[in-house]
Amino acid sequence: MPNREPPTAGAGRFRRTLVLVMAVQVVTLLLLWLLQARYGS
Amino acid sequence: MHWLNWVIIVGYLTYVVTDGVRRAKGTNKIEGYFLANRSLPWWAVGLSVMATQLSAVTMIGTTGQGATDGLRFIQFYFGLPLAMVIVGVTLMPLLRGAKVFTAYEFLERRFDAKTRSLTSFLFLASRGMSVGAILAAPAVVFSAIFGWNLALSVTIIGIPAIIYTMIGGVQAVTWADVKQMVLIVGALAAVVVVLLLKLPVSPDDALRIAGATGRLEVFDFTFDVNETYTFWSGVIGGTFLMLSYFGTDQSQVQRHLTARSTDEARSSLLMSAYWKIPLQALVLLVGVLVFVYYLFQAPPLLFNPAHERAVQDARGSAYGELQLRHDAAFAAREAAARTAADARTRGNDAAQAVAMQQFVAREGEVETIRDEALTMAESVTGESPRDVNYIIPRFVLHELPLGFAGIFIAAVMAAAMSSIAAELNSLSTATVIDFYRRWVRPEASDAHYLIVSKGATAFWGLFACIVATFAATLGSLIEVVNRFGSFFYGSILGVFLLAMVPGARAIGAFVGLIAGMGVVAVVTFGAPSVSFLWHNVIGAVTVVVVGVVLSRVTPSQTSPRAEGAQP
Question: From B215, which residue of chain A is nearest by alpha-carbon distance?
Answer without folding.
Answer: A40
